[in-house]
Amino acid sequence: MYDVMRVREDFPILSREIYGKPLVYLDNGATTQKPRQVVEAIVDEYYNVNANVHRGVHFLSQQATDLHEASREVVRRFLNAHSTNEILFTRGTTEGINLLAFSFGESMVKEGDEIVVSAMEHHSNIVPWQMMCERKGAHLRVIPMTDSGELEMEALEALLNERTRIVCCTQVSNVLGTVNPIAEVVKIAHRRGIPVLVDGAQSVPHMKVDVQELDCDFFAFSGHKVYGPTGVGVLYGKEEWLEKLPPYQGGGEMIKNVSFEKTTYNELPYKFEAGTPDYVATHALAKALEYVEQLGMKNIEQYERDLTRYALERMQQIEGMHIYGMAKERDAVISFQVGDIHHLDMGTLLDRLGIAVRTGHHCAEPLMRRLGIEGTVRASFGLYNTKDEVDALVAGIEKVRRMF
Ligand code: PLP
Questions:
Q1: CA torsion angle for 204, 322, 361, 147 (degrees, to 10)?
Q2: CB 223 within 8 A of CB 276
């Protein structure tokens, strides 16, 4: 049995009041709150361990290095990667994708080549590829989607050709909640020998991800969206790919030998990790992953899917409600508008009731254009949200609707 009230006790911020009302935090797609276990790991490491990693012979440096490298193993297990050489620590999903777009672009892309992204990507999985295309004279191609927010898989097949270098696709849309058939995307791309990057920013917090089962070549996610600290994330890459790709940034740790004439690079994963890593954050990220593993990703997924279903049912009964994205496979994100109430007005008034939602284009302007709108209100759920909170949201929306 998943005991959500027990889980909530681990998150001190959830007992806060906002404008005298209990906080209803429904902005988990943007960032999640942190359990005590994560915050305490950060405090404990700064109080008792702190020393730079990989460089010291002294006790603290070795202890900090051990914690940092043990975290890499936790991430490896969490994603079911083959080896810790495949786990690169980054600042987040965005940095992971920038790393790959640069490194892959430098070595694998030439003029006239094509990069495929989907119509529902976050800017972080569009702009780095666009920048690389500009540098290289390559072109961006887009997998279209249906009105209900599902990828058009036949169109994906038709898009791929001998010029396609990589397919970049989100596993879960941060706007529509659509869960994309990533294993299928990978199969289609691999049939033509094309690698696939998966943006896992919105999937990792909500479902069990197994990179070997998906067979994706690259997978990026952010710590802060999975109950971990800000400023740390992961880029997974198959070892055979990472071996082939050149480094992204130069500096300390990513080198083997440096002379003014020539530098040779370190082995994996360090080749891609220039400079002092946020070793406190990597340790705290491991604590966050252990936290969700302990609750059970299957349990979390089941709980959140039930909650989302309940929310959809209740919200659809509201007069004037329009929900964007009704894919068959969907996750804990609900984007909506009510009548012609501007999303900013809705968000601002819900805030006054203590309800935190996100408003705007959600860093997906091309998707907004596809939907023919400027923005939405987005409620996104996490493992600590409850049906009572959904009821509070519904009552809040009704109240705002009556005001208009
Ligand atoms: N990709 C998706 C689907 C997202 O939802 C987000 C964040 O909202 C990102 C990428 C970027 O994540 P970060 O800002 O942590 O790098």
A1: 70
A2: no
**Which of the listed residues 28, 31, 94 should we mutate to test ligand 1's pocket, taking the one with most ligand atoms within 8 A of CB?**
94
Q: How far apart are CA 186 and CA 396, in angstroms?
A: 42
| C-alpha distance from residue 270 to each of 28, 274, 276, 381 (Å) | 31, 7, 11, 35
Give residue-wise pLDDT tens across range 105-159: 999 999 999 999 999 999 999 999 999 999 999 999 999 999 999 999 999 999 9
CA angle in degrees (0–180, nearest 5) for 100-288-52: 70
Cα 201 to averaged position of ligand 1 atoms, centre (Å): 5
Is residue 270 located within the same domain as residue 315?
no
Judgement on whether residues 338 and 391 belong to the same structural domain of the protein: yes
- Coil, helix or strand at residue 369: helix
Domain boundary among 240, 271, 293: 293
Residue 318 burial class via C-beta count within 10 angstroms: exposed 0-12, middle 13-18, buried 19 and up: middle
For residues 100 and 129, give the distance between their C-alpha atoms in angstroms, rounded to a whole number.
9
In a domain, 35, yes or no: no
